[in-house]
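A quick aside before the break. I want you to see a complete sequence-to-structure record at least once, exactly as it would be stored in a machine-readable document. Don't worry about memorizing anything.
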Amino acid sequence: MKDCEIYSDLRVPCGSNIIVRVDGRNFSKLAPRLELEKPYDLDFVGIMVATCQDFFQEFSPCFMYTFSDEINILLDDVPFSGRLEKLNSVFASFFAGSFTRQIFQSDRFSKLLSTTFKSISFDSRVIPLNTDGMVEYFKDRQDEAWRNCLNGYAYWTLLEEYGKKEAALFLKGKKKQELHDLLFDRNINIMNIPLWQRRGVAIYREKVIVEGYNPVKQEKIVSHRWKPYVDWELAQFNREFFLSKDIITE
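That is the input. The structure line, written in tokens, reads:
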């Protein structure tokens, strides 16, 4: 029967940077049930980050980046021999399980979902890119986080003046500078809001110094270890950023 399996041996290409992107399914319907604060809810973002940390501990990726209900994973050691079906199915199910566990460990959210819980799921896709393409990909996703930030603040601010349809119609086709000016006219300087709202949150390995003791030589020793670091104050993504974090080399 194994011969009847479809694409069971399809593998990611060798020599590429492998990015796996997972997105929450129907999270637009989940948000009202969670009664999330708008345009950003720190507790929800904390759960997304904790879910990323669970994944980092399990699979030790090179780099992870999250905003909204989206998580992007850069792999330097591709598991499951690069089998595409395995990557997509295991990663999506892992995030669904971890996110659900994190939600129900939250006193705030578990009470809201206790009587109306529906299964939470994620979808997954694999994106192979060369190094330049990988850098451009993450720049694009961070640009999308910035667009989401501007649109979110503009929309929820305008709701105080207009209805939902009127606010959406007013914002349709507006450029970034126009949104920035709209908010500034209403005493909101978008550049003063937290960086994690504007640029998202990343997890990557950071080199730390570990002091120990050699009992044979009876002397202190110093070594370096890599540990996961959650960056809530991201710089803008570019080639220099990924070089400085030892994610890519020249």
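Two observations worth writing down. Residues 138-193 form one domain. The longest helix spans residues 131-158. We'll return to this after the break.
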